Predict the 3D structure of the following.
Amino acid sequence: MERGRVLLSPSILSADFGRLLAQVQEAEEAGADWLHVDVMDGHFVPNLTIGPPVLESLKGKVGLPLDVHLMIERPADYIKAFAAAGAAYLTVHPEADAHLHRTVQAIREAGIRPGVALNPSTPLSALECVLDDISLVLIMTVNPGFGGQKFIRSMVPKIRQAAALIGDRDIILEVDGGIGPETAPLVVGAGARALVAGNSVFRGKGTVAQNIKAIRDSLPG
Ligand code: DX5
Ligand code: ZN
């Protein structure tokens, strides 16, 4: 498949929620491609974050496609709410859903592109039965639940294997967790085409624009 430009998806989990719109607009102006939205329920992961009302509040003010990552149990119950709130991609964890295939179909029927995310301990084989039905594969390079965690280096071969499994299919391979200028080249070298970045964008050394540029500058080509 044609590799093209690597997509950058800043994660608002690390943003200052008191200035969310300003931070998101800064990311958009700095050339972010998507906006990553981490939804956590305190059950599937040990943290609580945001839901559809926050997406609704950004509607019409942000041009970036919303890349919504559901770390919740019973994700199928919330598809309609996220469709109405403007999600472009809706990614679910097979570990959280006994009927992944049905959920993926329902996401597509709701007019959203379905994605599947794999925890570090979840094998790639969890994808095989839905590979022809999804638009995105998200490889977790931290255990989900929090921003600012350390990148798990042993996931690099898994990214390479995911790229091989995807082959020519029109599926975006995205990586999430601990991505910054030091780790971005590693995962892109292994085949990642989209990068989630929370702390390195919103809590990095420079401005949001400088932090985004530092990630882009770290990439080959
Ligand atoms: C972790 C979330 C990530 C997180 C990434 O559970 O899925 O999207 O926001 O944050 P960083 O880039 O700081 O590791
Ligand atoms: Zn995420």
Summary: The mean pLDDT is 97. Residues 156-166 form the longest helix (11 residues). Residues 11, 36, 38, 69, 176, 196 surround zinc ion (ligand 2) (CB under 6 Å).
